[in-house]
């Protein structure tokens, strides 16, 4: 058996852990201007690749223990990587779940209950006024409602 001081560090374990941690953190990329449609796949691929690297490093630590260190570290990092991948999958699944229809919510194609809000000039206007017709303006066939939060 080779001298314990000559064994090499098992860098695959740490690289795998880094990728496993970056997976869930990648969900914040849209806030930095990254295209949001790619983020779900990145947040799943990174922990999966990280887990594969950790398992490869884990295998190296046990199979070739005379060359590589990391039996205990590999075991702990493998568990952490599995948990991070499970968290990423659960977040991916839960974020895409469409909620059930709420009984009181307006449905597409149905008439919306009357409400009154200020227009862009500050004057109160009701929903029924939007559908009323005058001599100069015919009644519209539809009204598009845009719920805009604005900038704080």
Describe this structure in words.
- The protein has 152 residues and is mainly α.
- It has a domain at 4-95.
- Helices cover 46% and strands 4% of the residues.
- The protein has 4 helices and 2 strands.
- It has helices spanning 11-25, 39-63, 71-95, 127-131; strands at 116-118, 124-126.
- It has a two-stranded antiparallel sheet.
- Helix 1 runs antiparallel to helix 2 and helix 2 (39-63) packs antiparallel against helix 3 (71-95).
- It is rod-shaped, with a radius of gyration of 28 Å.
- The model has no long low-confidence stretch (mean pLDDT 79).
Give a brief description.
By secondary structure, this protein is mostly helical. The chain contains four helices and two strands, in the order H-H-H-E-E-H. It has a domain at 4-95.
Which class do the helix and strand fractions yield?
mainly alpha
N-C termini distance: 66 Å
Q: Strand order, biggest sheet? A: 1-2
Q: Indicate the overall shape.
A: rod-shaped
How much of the polypeptide forms β-strand, as a percent range? under 5%
Low-confidence stretches: none
Features of the shown structure:
single chain; two-stranded antiparallel sheet
Detail the topology: elements first, then pairings.
Layout: H1 11-25, H2 39-63, H3 71-95, E1 116-118, E2 124-126, H4 127-131
Antiparallel strand pairs: 1-2
